[in-house]
Amino acid sequence: MDTEQELLDASRRFFDAFAASQGSSQMLKFFSTTSAAVIQHAPASCPHPYTSRLSGSNAVRSYFDLLGTHWTRSSVKLASALEVDASKRRVSVTAESTWTWKRSGRKFREEFTWTIDYDESMKIVSFIIRTLSGPGTCVMRAVDADPVSEDSPMQAA
């Protein structure tokens, strides 16, 4: 099998597991154990996205544990075709998901791009998520609260 097809297959399996809300132990199986995997999730408008970069298997597990603890995801779908750069072992895709807070039931929709780099064993070494929809829809920055109105006492002076 050629590298491009292997990258496509690995990415489809990973996306399908994500869309099926697999737990952190299942998601961790997609990541490299021979090098410290990097994960980063930030709004595209963030001027310093590297500040949200985490590395290592514990960070990857914690990321998926955090998602599973606070939200359910639904209507996860691809919004573009998978783009493969076989020379870099990189796959990029645009997708979207509806997130529902487990505590309140509030929902929001996140549109994002994934850029995934793989090692020689087709395991993820870098997983970069950029939120394309508004920064408030980035699941890593989401707040489970009603929007603040102009006359709310909670509004900053």
List keywords for this structure.
157 residues; alpha+beta; Nuclear Transport Factor 2, Chain: A; 7-stranded mixed sheet; 7 strands; 23% helix; disordered C terminus; NTF2-like_dom_sf; SnoaL-like domain-containing protein
CATH architecture: Roll
When the domains are counted, the total is 1
Q: Could you give the count of β-strands?
A: 7
Tell me the structural class: alpha+beta
Rg is 17 Å
Strand content: 25-35%
Give helix and strand order, one letter per element, not per position. HHEEHEEEEE
* Helix count from the secondary structure assignment: 3
Largest sheet: 7 strands, mixed
| Percent helix range | 10-25%
For this structure, the quaternary state is single chain
Question: What ranges have pLDDT less than 50 throughout 5 or more consecutive residues?
Answer: 148-157
CATH topology assignment: Nuclear Transport Factor 2, Chain: A
Distance between the termini: 61 Å
Q: What is the C-level CATH assignment?
A: Alpha Beta
Mean pLDDT across residues: 89
Q: What is the overall shape?
A: globular
In short:
The protein has helices at residues 3-19, 24-28, 57-70, and strands spanning 38-43, 54-55, 71-78, 83-85, 90-101, 107-118, 124-131.
Describe, in plain words, how this protein is organized in 3D.
The chain is α+β, with helices and mostly antiparallel strands and 157 residues long. The protein has one domain (3-141): Nuclear Transport Factor 2, Chain: A. Helices cover 23% and strands 32% of the residues. It has three helices and seven strands. The protein has helices spanning 3-19, 24-28, 57-70; strands at 38-43, 54-55, 71-78, 83-85, 90-101, 107-118, 124-131. Strands 1, 2, 3, 4, 5, 6 and 7 form a seven-stranded mixed beta sheet that branches. Residues 148-157 have low confidence and may be disordered.
